[in-house]
Design a protein that fits this description.
Elements: E1 42-43, E2 47-55, E3 59-66, E4 77-83, H1 99-114, E5 129-139, E6 149-158, H2 165-174, H3 181-201, E7 204-205, E8 214-216, H4 222-233, E9 238-240, E10 246-248, E11 262-264, E12 271-272, H5 291-294, H6 302-317, H7 332-346, H8 351-354, H9 360-369, H10 378-381, H11 389-400, H12 413-417, H13 420-423
Antiparallel strand pairs: 1-2, 2-3, 3-4, 4-6, 5-6, 7-12, 8-11, 9-10
Amino acid sequence: MADLWKPPTSGFEHITSSRLVDEELNEAYDASNWYPVKFGEVFHERYQVRAKLGWGGSSTVWLAKDLSAKDSKQDGWVTLKVYAGGMEADEEGEMGKSREFAFYDAVNEYKQQEHLDTGSDGELSICNCLGRFVISWDNPGGPPGSKPTTQTHQVVVLEPLGWTIHTLFLSFLKKTELIPESLSKDILRSTLLALDFMHTKIKRIHADVDEQNLMLTLSDRADLDEFAEREDAQPCARKIIDSTRTVYEARELREPKEYLAPMLCDFGHSTHIKEDHACMGLAGKPHARSPQMMFDVKWTEKLDIWQFGCMAWYLFEGERLFKLPNHPSSDASVYDAHLEQMISLLGHPSVELLHHPDAEDAKVWFENFCQGISPRTLEDREGRLLSEPAKREIFLDFMHKCVQWKEQDRWSAKQLLGHPWLLEK
């Protein structure tokens, strides 16, 4: 085993207690549910934490060194995704398994059944899982004088990746540019390959297709060495809560030298497809909720296509398809604004959706509030291709195949891969 790295003990900014940092920004954040990862900590007697890469609604993400790497050809860098407590789900019929664990089990089962040594294009467009394990600790959280409780957290070991597509988008925006059309198409093709693999091979729904869950393949793994060296020389800012908990501020890798194909990541919302089963409830980002979610009716893998369409518009046009008020997602004003914009974009909901027995609340809303909503269609809003009418028509047709009231009217991932707009160079 390699020698242990010793983290810097000075030279970093101390963040004040009043400022929320990273995972603390989550609406439902409760520190007692989040494992207090520390720089230098060794997990599973193998992975030493070196830097913080990011965070999400249910996990923190860290760069770690695999101490068991045996030679110089194995640089040992991995990504650890440490889930908050209480993320176990029994939707696969097995208690204690997170949705991400269940997803990668489905991938491995498919490979074993098909006797695959190398992945298909779709599988290769999905972030590679190198392992997983569970950690337990005595959580001291609770009322003063109470005994610590044993809490478990699931950890996924992943292949390190580069920038998110969201970061890439913002980097172009800072230069008052949009992502070039050819690169946008490459990103969308990779996403559709991953979704086609999920929908047809392992029968899974992603349920959170978003530019923050797509990450560029690293063009040079030496970028990870540079990132770790930068952490040593200029330690990241942090908020020291007490002797047991420090909240570190994540930092990003430097801009990649070239933009390689992205991989679809974060399967914490994923669920399975069954012939006699559809899903209900909310999933994914609020601005990308499908009509079925808005009407509180069951949804299928075509949710991914709706979310994909919302992302495609954002990346190509530079604006959200649905612009929601900056309020908590549970606020009634967010629902009202979203449904109004949906009707403005797509016209009246389908009779089938409006008269669904589970859509009573939405039906009442529609009857009371939908009058007088002015149409503002995709054709009204598209602005990037105004000088290229033929190309514009093909792009708008592509978008119409993604965002439809009825799920059966949305194209599949495989069909979209063959759409003329994506095939056009």
